[in-house]
């Protein structure tokens, strides 16, 4: 088990994050609760900034907001000098409401609607990453109607199978994303973009997958993309100036995960670029990277209360918490593994192996199989670690569970950045047609 960022055990033997005792956070804000460690997020942003932006020429780090997005998060990212990747009208709306500088926004997505594209054009976002021919034609029409010139990148599927869960691989040929490099589709996309007087083709984008540990996958990506950029220049006589390498850098969730250092990731990209640019006689492009998980993953902790405990002698002990797959769908979607601690008794020795289950009506609602913990009882607090990425952002109201709140902790202060949903929030958009409204019918 590994603690992250500002997580420590305090004198009471409790888990403390950002100078806040998690036992007090539970009593003040209730559980389940997402806790985000602001200092840790900022520290990682700074590592990215110093390794990629300061350590390399003409580089931009863009936070992939799908990992975790709120108004407060937008402000932190902007203050740390990073750009923002958004993939929907909702993410874009959040960024704009947070007054994120539009020119530092990259708009992604494999099925952007006309409305979403219009929203991006109105806001004058920095780059639209065009994924497919349908989108290119929509965008071209919109740009022409408005007499606007739009800076675009093309999303390319480079044909790399990164070693990660198949649901989060994206670079392989059989993928819903992007223009395929190997069968001429990417060439056609470049030609079409170059033939438009409203679309300004700045460069290419590729993203090979997520939770990747082998730096070699990124080296491979750079080699393939730079070669393709050089070949395209020969073919079209047009130089693509920007190369967005996507995100995907892995983090520690549980034993066996061995992420490299961000500085080594940067070194790999830099060396691979040096080699590829020399080999293919191509000038250094502007490099953009889009980390999501690695910026917020280890900065998040989910705090739960333990409730029912069921022991099947000789088989298993199920320990149920007051959340589950609705606030963290990753174990049931990707067999993702997590570590956890008993937050109110961090100083106690582990005594038994238990399995942590959620409260949803699904046998598959298991957060952690076979974890060693001190002997737990109802009312104990369980802190699941590394839940900052793709937890809150992928949460649902399954079983009509209200979503937990999110608090941002730093230097002993805890600020609510997303309020806990209430039961009445769950009915906010429900509409009862008059013919089904029995109270009204009875009163007539
Ligand atoms: C286009 C794109 N960029 C960036 C990311 C962020 O990836 P990660 O969270 O693995 O860094 C993703 C998600 O995998 C993505 O699809
Ligand atoms: N949601 C995935 C990552 C997908 C990233 C988006 N392309 C996860 O939790 O691991």
From TrEMBL:
Pyridoxal 5'-phosphate binds at residues 248, 290-293, 390. Its EC number is 4.1.1.20. Pathway: Amino-acid biosynthesis; L-lysine biosynthesis via DAP pathway; L-lysine from DL-2,6-diaminopimelate: step 1/1. The keyword Plastid does not apply. Coiled coil: none annotated. Substrate binds at residues 293, 330, 334, 362, 390. Its cofactor is pyridoxal 5'-phosphate. It is an enzyme of class 4 (lyase). It catalyses: meso-2,6-diaminopimelate + H(+) = L-lysine + CO2. GO terms for molecular function: diaminopimelate decarboxylase activity; pyridoxal phosphate binding. Residues 41-296 form the Orn/DAP/Arg decarboxylase 2 N-terminal domain. The keyword Amino-acid biosynthesis applies. Keywords: Amino-acid biosynthesis, Decarboxylase, Lyase, Lysine biosynthesis, Pyridoxal phosphate. One of its GO terms (biological process) is lysine biosynthetic process via diaminopimelate. The modification N6-(pyridoxal phosphate)lysine is found at residue 66. It comes from the Bacteria. Belongs to the Orn/Lys/Arg decarboxylase class-II family. LysA subfamily. Specifically catalyzes the decarboxylation of meso-diaminopimelate (meso-DAP) to L-lysine. Homodimer. This is Diaminopimelate decarboxylase. The gene is lysA.
């Amino acid at each position: 088990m590994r603690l992250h960022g500002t997580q420590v055990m305090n004198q009471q033997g409790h888990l403390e994050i950002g100078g806040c005792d998690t036992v007090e956070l539970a009593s003040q804000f209730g559980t389940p609760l997402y806790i985000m460690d602001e200092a840790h997020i900022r520290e990682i942003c700074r590592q990215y900034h110093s390794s990629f932006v300061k350590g390399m020429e003409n580089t931009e780090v863009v936070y992939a907001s799908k990992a975790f997005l709120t108004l407060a998060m937008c402000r932190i990212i902007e203050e740390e000098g990073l750009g923002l990747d958004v993939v929907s009208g909702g993410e874009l709306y959040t960024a704009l409401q947070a007054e994120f500088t539009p020119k530092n926004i990259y708009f992604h997505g494999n099925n952007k609607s006309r409305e979403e594209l219009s929203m991006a054009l109105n806001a004058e976002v920095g780059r639209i990453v065009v994924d497919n021919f349908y989108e290119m034609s929509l965008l071209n029409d919109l740009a022409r109607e408005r007499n606007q010139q739009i800076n675009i990148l093309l999303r390319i599927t480079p044909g790399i199978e990164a070693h990660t869960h198949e649901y989060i691989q994206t670079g392989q040929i059989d993928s819903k994303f992007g223009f395929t490099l190997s069968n001429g589709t990417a060439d056609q996309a470049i030609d079409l973009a170059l033939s438009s007087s409203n679309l300004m083709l700045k460069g290419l984008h590729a993203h090979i997958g997520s939770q990747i540990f082998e730096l070699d996958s990124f080296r491979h990506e750079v080699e393939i993309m730079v070669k393709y950029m050089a070949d395209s220049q020969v073919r079209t006589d047009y130089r693509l100036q920007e190369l967005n390498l996507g995100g995907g850098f892995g983090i520690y969730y549980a034993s066996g995960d061995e992420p490299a250092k961000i500085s080594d990731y940067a070194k790999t990209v830099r060396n691979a670029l040096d080699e590829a640019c020399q080999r293919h006689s191509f000038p250094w492009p502007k490099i953009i990277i889009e980390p999501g998980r690695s910026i917020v993953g280890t900065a998040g902790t989910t705090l739960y209360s333990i409730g029912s405990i069921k022991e099947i002698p000789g088989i298993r002990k199920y320990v149920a918490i007051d959340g589950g797959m609705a606030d963290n769908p990753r174990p049931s979607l990707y067999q993702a593994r997590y570590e956890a601690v008993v937050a109110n008794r961090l100083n106690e020795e582990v005594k038994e192996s238990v399995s942590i289950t959620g409260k949803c009506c699904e046998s598959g609602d298991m957060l952690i199989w076979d974890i060693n913990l001190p002997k737990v009882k109802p009312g104990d607090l369980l802190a699941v670690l590394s839940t900052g990425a793709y937890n809150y952002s992928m949460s649902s109201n399954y079983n009509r569970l209200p979503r937990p709140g999110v608090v941002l902790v730093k230097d002993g202060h805890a600020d609510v950045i997303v309020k806990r949903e209430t039961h009445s929030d769950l009915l906010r958009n429900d509409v009862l047609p008059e013919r089904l409204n029995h109270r009204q019918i009875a009163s007539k």
